[in-house]
Amino acid sequence: MSPSLKVSIAAGAFASMFALVGQANAQAFYLQEQSARGAGRAFSGEVADTGAASLWWNPAAIADAEGIEGTLSASAILPRGQVVDRGTVIVRPAQGPAPVGGDAVSRNPINNGVLPSGAFVAPLARGVVFGLAVTSPYSFTTDYSSSSWARYSADRTRLRTVDIQPSLAVALTDWLRVGGAVNVEYTDASLSNKLPNLSAALPDGEQKLSGDGWDVGWTAGLQMHNDFATVGIAYKSAIKHNLKGDLTVSGLLGPLAGSNMSLSGVRASFYTPAQIIVGGRFRATKALTLNAQAVRYTWSKFDAIGLGAPLDTAIPENYRDSWSLAGGVDYAVSPALTLRAGVQRALTPTQDGERDARVPDANRWNYGVGASYAVNSHFTVDAAANYVDFADSSIDRITAAYVGTPAQTPVLTNGELQKAHAFVLSLGARMAL
């Protein structure tokens, strides 16, 4: 077996492993469903709202807490859509272009999932409050059939993160609150995809990967209050993830048989983006509050995946910075019942010409409705429903197996994400002592 062939297989495998993107609700593989209250207004006022339910977005949100508070939420994410072949071809060595074959339509490749989150708040002294949020901001599973046309770039992918955010907030004046937090994040990833043998008459080979790691980022924010408005500003840092993974390649036949292997201890690094969040809540009447929020995502940090020894290379990803904009309302029907609604527009960081079947992302609209009911002064129930509508988008990133070797096998991808949408149902509770 050629050493360059082994490196090519492993590098391509780890490139796929860490391009872990699916049809999430905010952008690329970021999930924003960290509060059932926020979901009801399409996440239009979280950086400027107060209490444990807004801690993920802004640690300054808890500075006014006078007693122990807690919140728990869970969101059921139900994505739908299809990834369609529009004429993808494979070019094996010394052979002309041929159809990639397989099922031409992959329906609902993104699995349903339930996303939990929670936060706890406790005052330490007058105007000084400690908080702890536990969330899962980057999580999803995709599952393509082994006979899908997209099998060489995507088969089964699973990503799970756990973000632990201890926070401290201070009320500096009667109108200014500030806060800071550390984000300790655990990431666990696994995937598999098919590898083409040199003859189309032979069954596909397969590669399976897994990796995990712990990494650290930070969050800082402030809020400015008066009698009728609150303005919030927060910054969540980019996080450099360092994962250590294992790779198994099997099922390669003929001249490629020597490339079957089991490789441990391969390392990779990549960034998830920073977020710059600005928003406000404005009391228009005694009952009606208007909300607005803008988020800038520095997805251009995800420009490449660095692969350590023994591969020592980098795989370009070429994401671009992007935005989300949201507006919404809260309406207090009574002291116990509050109704909400909102709309959010989010732009994908993926680019035409750079999008593959493992990255079926697109621009989207998110429409939300929700309600809160205060059972008593200590316990409030939040519920929300969201409909997320994705634009159709091209899947057109050219890939290749065994790059830089005599066995190099390009796959000229020509596909499309169609009819994609998601329903998100959220339920939560807030408690105060």
UniProtKB/TrEMBL annotation:
Its main location: membrane. Gene3D superfamilies: Outer membrane protein transport protein (OMPP1/FadL/TodX) (2.40.160.60). PANTHER family: OUTER MEMBRANE PROTEIN NMB0088-RELATED (PTHR35093). GO terms for cellular component: cell outer membrane. It holds the Pfam family Toluene_X. Keywords: Cell outer membrane, Membrane, Signal, Transmembrane, Transmembrane beta strand. Belongs to the OmpP1/FadL family. This is Outer membrane protein transport protein. One of its GO terms (molecular function) is long-chain fatty acid transporting porin activity. The keyword Membrane applies. It comes from the Bacteria. It is a multi-pass membrane protein. Residues 1-26 form the signal peptide. It is found in: Cell outer membrane.
